[in-house]
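REQUEST ID: PR-0412
SUBMITTED BY: lab tech R.K.
PRIORITY: routine
TASK: structure prediction, single protein chain
INPUT:
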Amino acid sequence: MNRFRNFILVGLAALGLVLAQAASATTVQKFTLQELTKKASSIVIGKVEGATSSWDAANKEIYTFYTITVSQPVKGAKGGETITIRQLGGTVGNIASIVPGMPSFKKGEEVVLFLTQKDAAGYPWVLGLQQGKYSVVEQAGVKMVRNDLAGTEFLTPNGAHVQPTVAPDQQLGAFIDGIKTTLDVDGKIQATPTE
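STATUS: complete
OUTPUT:
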């Protein structure tokens, strides 16, 4: 009898772990960098100035509003502009709403953002959840971009699961040049083919 009870307890614990893993991830369509670039309504390099969380009008969802000062527009924005993005989740009082896969921001952080058009409430969202947010970090005096995909599971357009792959850190300038090449805009690096 004890063996059977132990078997049931181990089975329930294993099921709990599987369900906990499934509950800690958000599934979203996987985008390549070129797809993010083309689908984004705007792409900006900016600095996170602050964040405010509040309940929606119906007191059902918590939203966090991040203020970003644009230092360099890449697509569809103006330099020096301040934009406010909105996303699900945040903390109000002692209640926290956490949405796995949603990008996180820190005050003072420099970021590259791929943004959607404004929603019905007038706010853009980060495109593809965490896929559309790159943190700018400094390594040996060189600015690099990094994308953290923790908590995000990916699907292809036909619904097949895709393993998340984390791209290595890239130099900020080369990263932006690659975006400009995809957009075919001025300022990209011109390569001369060798014979």
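NOTES: The longest strand covers residues 42-55.
REVIEWED BY: pending
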